[in-house]
Amino acid sequence: MSAVYDCSDPHARADGLKAAISAVRSGRLVVLPTDTVYGIGADAFDATAVRALLQAKNRGPDMPVGVLVGSWSTVDGLVLGLSQEARTLIEAFWPGDLSIVVSHAPSLHWNLGTTRGTVMLRMPLHPVALEVLREVGPMAVSSANVSGQPPASTMQEAKEQLGESVAVYLDGGPSGDPVPSTIVDLTGEKPSLLREGAVSAEAVSEALGMEIGRAQ
């Protein structure tokens, strides 16, 4: 049976964080608040757990899962050489609502779906998410909803869609406007905008010192 923890209560929050960390380490799924919408997450290096995440959302590996990290330094161990553009965007917008797509290190043993050697990374600006990430390391995280349904902006909305497929639900209150992160692809010759979300294209261009094009 799923466990629900109200993170507005200090004691429940502490218990919830312990339960979520234990669940992730044992290959189970958790729902946690982020600075965009609620996310469903698993250990990024546990292929069985990532498959369970995709099954809970009713989606296939053709829609790969992004990875959330708890610190800037974590990224260096995940990518094959971090470009100056990537470092600039990380320094400008992390923690926050910007995701970057980069080539991951070939030595990594993970299966996030059909990624073609790339990974989408983000560091969220939410204390509950960051506490979990800093304990368990990189997590595969997707919006906490069944594919095709609206993203969950509350824990209850996530629970109504995902039910008992999730071991632990961390309730951090409403997430606010359900605006997704902006996604910038850094795997090509020049950065390109895959999705404009909470961070504007103009803000990305200003940080990089160049006009950013949109992916075709």
TrEMBL record:
InterPro entries: DHBP_synth_RibB-like_a/b_dom, Sua5-like_dom, TC-AMP_synthase_SUA5. The keyword Transferase applies. GO terms for molecular function: ATP binding; double-stranded RNA binding; L-threonylcarbamoyladenylate synthase; tRNA binding. One of its GO terms (cellular component) is cytoplasm. It is found in: Cytoplasm. Residues 14-199 form the YrdC-like domain. Keywords: ATP-binding, Cytoplasm, Nucleotide-binding, Nucleotidyltransferase, Transferase, tRNA processing. Its main location: cytoplasm. It catalyses: L-threonine + hydrogencarbonate + ATP = L-threonylcarbamoyladenylate + diphosphate + H2O. It is an enzyme of class 2 (transferase). Gene3D superfamilies: DHBP synthase (3.90.870.10). It comes from the Bacteria. GO terms for biological process: regulation of translational fidelity; tRNA processing. Its EC number is 2.7.7.87. It holds the Pfam family Sua5_yciO_yrdC. Transmembrane segments: none annotated. Belongs to the SUA5 family. NCBIfam families: L-threonylcarbamoyladenylate synthase. This is L-threonylcarbamoyladenylate synthase. It comes from Saccharomonospora viridis (strain ATCC 15386 / DSM 43017 / JCM 3036 / CCUG 5913 / NBRC 12207 / NCIMB 9602 / P101) (Thermoactinomyces viridis). The lineage of its organism: Bacteria, Bacillati, Actinomycetota, Actinomycetes, Pseudonocardiales.
